[in-house]
């Protein structure tokens, strides 16, 4: 049980059956695969004991069937007598559950020494046998050493003696009757010991609602707590840095940027902490919106911290800020404006002198804006008056990290979180449910957009054309990215690999069997690596004379910084890199992107990647190179991976893609990637499917928390939330 993660009776009761077998329906045996641990319902056709010719001992050979196919059962014993008890139970015509690891012997599938349970036989009396024969049979997530019905028996041992009063219910009685839900005690009986299919459905629906409700109650409490806190109001000033910044902006803001900007300006001016999520289409210009909010806070005498997920991105933000602010960002320097401020950079790898100066700038308040990576979270970082925390490209930061940074202010600072990619509404409600949401849907006018084409890797002519196209872009004065899933051909693991891991599981279906299993030969195909590809491209006649640079997570920060600067300046024309450029990198001259082994990336990730090109006025081109079966061909002959890429080629709407992506992945991966809290407690809830339940639970939970903020009247709900937070904290500790 420990191996299944079952340590307490509570764990056991929350170990829900994965499915239910109807005693009248046999399992289709055609789906069995060698090596799999299975539990099947089948009918015994025969069972014969034989003594063995070559060895001492006896063997029982049984055959079970689903009516069409057969599966063999093999038992060995010291002598025939040792096997008679099996022979007596395995009578032809009887139906039972059989469990074990599927093996193959001389071309037939078999289970060796399977654990089994004959329906209606292993019970005490006939009445019970009859009753049992008509009930749905719960099939639990089991293991080779612990059969489903042994789990079932253990659950009964725990559940049967319990009375209603022994099972405190986190869902208040009033809500239960309003929503037509049974009590927790009843729901547990329904899912573990159903008499009918309607029973387990009723129980499951109630437990699913409970998961959504507890999660939303936790989020509602976070919102309520934040709303009770005091924050320093940072009202806008007509003649400050923000006004100067706006005057220097080389473009006009989009309608969306203006609208969201006003929303933020109002909230920052209130003495309550803003708690807002800014999500938007890739390239919609979230950064500018955040910068303007930061400047409003600086104008009001406070400081702003901008937390970026990578050093490349942190450095880019500092460059952007300094460029846009000009002399306004050079306070205290010769030529700096009198009323200016400073933009400080804090990263984990900067030199001691630079770090000391940045720390001093932050602590003294001389720097109005401090940009950094995780290093900003370190204890030595102090602010004079931190008024706003901006978390860029949130998916790499957890809730706890947000809190760490906010704790650096004497009064709760305002908070703005930005997501890297558009996210579906249900995910926003679940993962970022403690935040209000603003959305930027339009991208600035004048962009020609990105054309996406799928290129079959095995087609030499297309590949030649691909590199020619890269050359043409470079000759037109533009830059190109070539993205690979790995760094080094000799090493299997690298910073690209975690993305792969996500994607391999990501394409997994409900049964939990992922694309890795189904496309085994494809999974073993060696993946293209940055260092190898860079060497190949340098030797390629089509790219002769083109400056090719490399960028990956294992390079020294200075080198990364230099390559990015070279790329922006045109000293590097083609950048071969891992997905380190995925998040937020902004080089407007970049027009072409070639993604190698594109099928190994998630849809949202590819959308994010291609968002790196076509940022200027010249049109972007994204070439997705893939060896996935049927890539570049019409859907009929294409593998699922190829179809996925085609979907991307045909869709430019990031919100639509995010929904497709979500359907293709298992929840855990999506939410895990978003580093949400309490996800380990989501067993039945699916954010793709249960949008209605989530929305309803959110309304209900908000009302409950409003009426009873401390949840004094519902101790079971408070306990459930605490338990969830404890799990969240554990997860956080694991990650760090
Ligand atoms: P994202 O929302 O993906 O983070 P960015 O903030 O990086 O997008 O902005 C993408 C690019 O668009 C940047 O080069 C930025 O300077 C530019 N940009 C932002 N707003 C506008 C606008 N209103 N008009 C023209 N260009 C803009
Ligand atoms: Mg960005």
TrEMBL record:
GO terms for molecular function: ATP binding; DNA binding; DNA helicase activity; hydrolase activity. PROSITE patterns: HELICASE_ATP_BIND_1, HELICASE_CTER. Residues 500-668 form the Helicase C-terminal domain. Residues 267-440 form the Helicase ATP-binding domain. InterPro entries: DEAD/DEAH_box_helicase_dom (IPR011545), Helicase_ATP-bd (IPR014001), Helicase_C-like (IPR001650), NA-bd_OB-fold (IPR012340), P-loop_NTPase (IPR027417), RecG/Mfd (IPR047112), RecG_dom3_C (IPR045562), RecG_wedge (IPR033454). This is Probable DNA 3'-5' helicase RecG. Keywords: ATP-binding, DNA damage, DNA repair, DNA-binding, Helicase, Hydrolase, Nucleotide-binding. The keyword Nucleotide-binding applies. It comes from Cellulomonas fimi. It holds the Pfam family DEAD. GO terms for biological process: DNA repair. The keyword Iron does not apply.
């Amino acid at each position: 049980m420990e191996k299944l993660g079952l340590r307490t009776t509570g764990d056991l009761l929350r170990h829900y059956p994965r499915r239910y077998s109807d005693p009248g329906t046999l399992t289709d045996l055609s789906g069995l695969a060698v090596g799999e641990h299975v539990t099947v319902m089948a009918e015994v056709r025969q069972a014969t004991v034989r003594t063995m010719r070559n060895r001492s001992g006896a063997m029982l050979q049984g055959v079970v069937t689903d009516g069409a196919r057969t599966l063999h059962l093999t038992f060995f014993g010291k002598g025939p007598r040792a096997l008679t008890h099996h022979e007596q139970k395995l009578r032809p015509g009887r139906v039972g559950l059989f469990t074990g690891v599927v093996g193959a012997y001389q071309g037939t599938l078999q289970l060796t020494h399977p654990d089994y349970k004959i329906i209606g036989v292993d019970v005490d009396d006939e009445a019970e046998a009859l009753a049992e024969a008509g009930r749905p049979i719960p099939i639990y997530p089991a293991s080779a050493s612990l059969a489903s019905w042994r789990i079932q028996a253990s659950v009964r041992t725990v559940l049967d003696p319990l009375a209603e009063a022994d099972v405190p219910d986190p869902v208040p009685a009033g809500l239960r009757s309003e929503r037509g839900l049974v009590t927790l005690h009843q729901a547990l009986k329904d899912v573990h010991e159903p008499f009918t299919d309607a029973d387990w459905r009723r129980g499951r629906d109630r437990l699913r609602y409970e998961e959504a409700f507890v999660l939303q109650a936790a989020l509602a409490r976070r919102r309520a707590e934040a709303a009770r806190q005091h924050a320093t109001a940072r009202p806008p000033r007509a003649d400050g840095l923000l006004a100067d910044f706006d005057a220097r902006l080389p473009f006009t803001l989009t309608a969306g940027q203006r609208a969201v900007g006003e929303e933020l300006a109002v909230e920052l001016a209130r003495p309550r902490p803003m708690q807002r999520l800014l999500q938007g289409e890739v390239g919609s210009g979230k950064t500018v919106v955040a910068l303007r909010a930061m400047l409003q806070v600086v104008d009001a005498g406070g400081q702003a911290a901008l937390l970026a997920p990578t050093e490349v991105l942190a450095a880019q933000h500092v460059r952007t800020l300094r460029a846009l602010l000009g002399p306004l960002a050079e306070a205290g320097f010769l030529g700096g404006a009198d009323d200016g401020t400073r933009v400080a950079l804090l990263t984990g790898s900067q030199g001691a002198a630079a770090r000391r100066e940045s720390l001093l700038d932050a602590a003294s308040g001389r720097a109005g804006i401090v940009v950094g990576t995780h290093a900003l979270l370190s204890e030595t970082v102090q602010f004079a008056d931190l008024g706003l925390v901006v978390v860029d490209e949130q998916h790499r930061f957890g809730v706890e990290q947000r809190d760490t940074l906010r704790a650096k202010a004497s009064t709760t600072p305002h908070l703005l979180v930005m997501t890297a990619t558009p996210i579906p509404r249900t995910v926003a409600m679940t993962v970022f449910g403690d935040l209000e949401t603003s959305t930027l849907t339009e991208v600035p006018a004048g962009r020609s957009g990105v054309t996406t084409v799928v290129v079959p890797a095995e087609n030499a002519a297309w590949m030649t054309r691909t590199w020619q196209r890269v050359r043409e872009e470079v000759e037109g004065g533009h830059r190109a990215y070539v993205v690979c899933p790995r760094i080094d051909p000799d090493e299997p693991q690298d910073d690209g690999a975690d993305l792969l891991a996500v994607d391999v599981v990501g394409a997994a279906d409900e049964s939990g069997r992922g694309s890795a299993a189904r496309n085994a030969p494809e999974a073993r195909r060696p993946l293209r690596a940055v260092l190898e590809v860079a060497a190949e491209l340098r030797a390629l006649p089509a790219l002769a004379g083109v400056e090719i640079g490399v960028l990956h997570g294992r390079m020294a920060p200075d080198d990364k910084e230099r390559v990015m600067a070279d790329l922006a300046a045109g000293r590097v024309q083609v950048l071969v890199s891992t997905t380190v450029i995925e998040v937020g990198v902004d080089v407007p001259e970049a027009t072409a992107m070639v993604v190698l082994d594109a099928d190994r990336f998630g849809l949202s990730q590819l959308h994010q990647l291609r968002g790196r090109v076509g940022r200027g006025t010249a049109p972007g081109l994204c070439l997705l190179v893939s060896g996935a079966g049927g890539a570049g061909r019409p859907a009929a002959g294409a593998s699922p991976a190829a179809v996925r890429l085609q979907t991307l080629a045909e869709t430019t709407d990031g919100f639509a893609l995010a929904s497709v992506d979500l359907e293709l992945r298992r929840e855990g991966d999506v939410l895990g990637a978003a580093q949400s809290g309490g996800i380990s407690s989501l067993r039945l809830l699916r954010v793709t499917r249960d949008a209605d339940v989530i929305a309803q639970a959110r309304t209900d939970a908000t009302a409950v928390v409003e009426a009873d903020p401390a949840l004094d009247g519902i101790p079971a709900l408070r306990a459930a939330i605490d338990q969830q937070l404890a799990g969240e904290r554990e997860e956080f500790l694991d990650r760090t």
